[in-house]
Amino acid sequence: MNIITSIFLGFLQGLTEFLPVSSSGHLVLVQSLIPGFSQTGVLFDVFLHFGTLFAVLVFFRKEILKLPLRYYLFLALATIPAALIGYFFKSQLESLFTSTKLVGFALLVTGLLNFLTDKTESREKELSFKNTFITGVAQAIAIIPGISRSGTTIFASVAQGIDKKTAAKFSFLLSIPAVLGANILEFTTHGLNEIGNYTYYLTGFVFSFISGLLAIYLVFKFLTQKKFKIFAYYCFILGILAILL
User: What is the pLDDT of residue 190?
Assistant: First the structure.
């Protein structure tokens, strides 16, 4: 890996983490399909996720500390399904990150969810323990590479009658415990000694942070302008290409 690779993957991760197009799916495709491109490893991906985590904290910095206790309980409850699956099926899940065809079919599913989100009218139903838990189950399904975490969780909330802006905000904040949990698990498993050149990892972190901020802004903009179907078309095209290649 070199500095150009770190910049490219950092920018790609930040942009695709919050845009509903699956960051994990894009990384699998890039690492598998570009000739001569070496696998960067799970820990490098974790550092990229740290960059997007920081982007969420900065974007919502004025709101996070003002959220009511009930909202934090919603986030905790919604985190449980993915945490359980990630902990107990970690080795099985890692094997999924080698199949480009799986990513292709998963992207088609993501595209469909994005299309349905765009066509669903916003309602004013409030967050509850029931609907946030269902959104958490959707997040657990999104562990599969190619299934967008943001796209799936936003759709799950909107389909239950949650306002689109509220759904997007909950999806982004829900990424905080998810990313923290994944980082803790990976550092516990691999340790810091396997990281290697810190320059590449920190570069990836910075660029994933910057592009993550941009992506959050774009999601809100596209949701309010009813242009979410653009992401659906993108996922359909990329998914078909991944299956054929």
Answer: 59
